[in-house]
Amino acid sequence: MAKIYPDSKKFVDMKMKYSPNDTLAKFDLFMSDFKEKKPTREDVQHFVELNFEAEGQEFEDWRPEDWVEHPKFLDNIQDRDFQRWAKKLNHIWTTLGRKMKDEVKSHQEHYSIIWIPNPVIVPGGRFREFYYWDSYWILQGLMLSEMHHTARGILENFLYIVEKYGYIPNGGRIYYLARSQPPLLIPMVNMYYEFTRDATFIQQNLPTLEKEFDYWMTNHSKVVHLDGKNYTLAVYGDRSQGPRPESYSEDVESSNIFKEQNKKEAYYSELKAAAESGWDFSSRWFITNATNKGNLTNIKTRSIVPVDLNAMIYWNAVLLADFNNLFGNAEKARYYSDIAEQWIEATKAVLWHEEIGSWLDYDLHNQVKRDYFYPTNISPLWTGCYDKSEKDSIVRNVLKYLQNKKIQYPGGVPSSVEHTGEQWDYPNAWPPLQHMMIVGLNNTGDEYAVRLAYELAESWVRSNYKAFKEKDAMYEKYDSTVFGVGGGGGEYEIQLGFGWSNGVIMDLLYRYSDVLTVDDPSLLLTSSVQEAKVSSSGISSITTALIALLVSLSAGFIG
């Protein structure tokens, strides 16, 4: 391979200057000059420069028309430093907007990008197109920023794509078409409805939402045999051949360990299934002797039943039942409610483990639970995928589980405790996983779970703030072991922007607007005590009593 660019994605994002047929003919002519030898790297680069334009040519300058400089949610943020920060994050939306040129629609065959009718907010960095599950947290921020028109446009893009392809691909490129990402379109539409109360939008698009759900039920369901019963649950997968185009050289090189082509193809499919999960890559998908040890060549994503995917399938079914009830479609509402109940039963039977105190992914190949910590283990709390009559017991067990795992790190909850060098493992902490945990724990209403949710939010927000203060940027991921530092690892350099990071922080600043502070109040009070002792030792007993009162009041306000 010539590997003329460090990042394989650069080439597949370029625009062809000529039609696909003409470009292939030019390539055949080019290769005819090298019958006795291979073309050099410089030869290949020259061919590319003659026949392709630089990446990013699809877009024209665009500033969201509904962007407002000072959305109302900012006024609720009591800490002035955080308020100023949130205002800067709000401004980032103006840099992440992308609108396609008219030429893309009329000459789609020249581009790898999928044409969509409305502008989008992209994640940032090398990610110049929409990504499915990123958009859920991007919409969290857009709705708070009062950019309802932009948000609706993004949803209309997704609905257009479902009508065209039957599902939403991983991202907005044709090379992503054979896989999807975590199914969050229906929750996104629900989020839009909760902010706007636009029931007509749901009613007009309900058949399309049901089509998206049917895709997941039809193409991702697996029957699990356990204790003499059959349960249906969902897994990630892939429907294409060959390496990932956007990571072509990386996949080819890592596949060299496999000598037979069918094993290479199976390996490529496992990689693409992991990409569909959003977790590309992690020990979460490794299977070696029924454990999560090994390296990327031990990846077996398609043989693992993921907790979070099934929690989302349940959520989708519940929301479709709610939507149908909203419009008096009682029979359809019962249909989706029945699916939701089946998913609760299956999730409890296969994935919940009372003795451990958590849900766990399931290894279909070895028919065993995967007893390893990942933040998604508790994602059923986020979507409500559990028997509500057992909530108190479940929450109590989950809290013990989290306490035993010692998940609270300076820079956030790590994606795992496995040191593999993969980006979805230790020590990286990812915004969507923090949000799932925080919202899930808070949703229970349990006093201790709510308190833990606040502590996780406080730590995450402060760490992100420190990183922003130092680099004037939001990172795609962060280092859980160091306060205020971006994460690393994986196949590409650290990315800035960043869509879902902005959305998560905005939502947490909104949820905890009256209690989150840049500085720890207890530390400030301790500092005041020391100063008081130095300057007024004669009234130490009064000062101590006053500080004790202030600490008690602060604890009351914050807790």
TrEMBL record:
EC numbers, comma separated: 3.2.1.28
GO aspect biological process, one term: trehalose catabolic process
MF terms (GO), sorted A to Z: alpha,alpha-trehalase activity
Gene3D superfamilies: 1.50.10.10
Organism expressing this protein natively: Dendroctonus ponderosae
Keywords (A to Z) from UniProt: Glycosidase, Hydrolase
Membrane spanning stretches: none
Recorded catalytic activity of this chain's protein: alpha,alpha-trehalose + H2O = alpha-D-glucose + beta-D-glucose
Top-rank EC class of the record's enzyme: hydrolase
InterPro entries, alphabetized: 6-hairpin_glycosidase_sf, 6hp_glycosidase-like_sf, Glyco_hydro_37, Glyco_hydro_37_CS
The UniProt record lists the keyword Aminoacyl-tRNA synthetase: no
Taxon lineage: Eukaryota, Metazoa, Ecdysozoa, Arthropoda, Hexapoda
Statement: the UniProt record of this protein carries the keyword Hydrolase: yes
Entry-linked PANTHER family: TREHALASE (PTHR23403:SF1)
Family stated for the protein in its record: Belongs to the glycosyl hydrolase 37 family.
Official protein name in the record: Trehalase
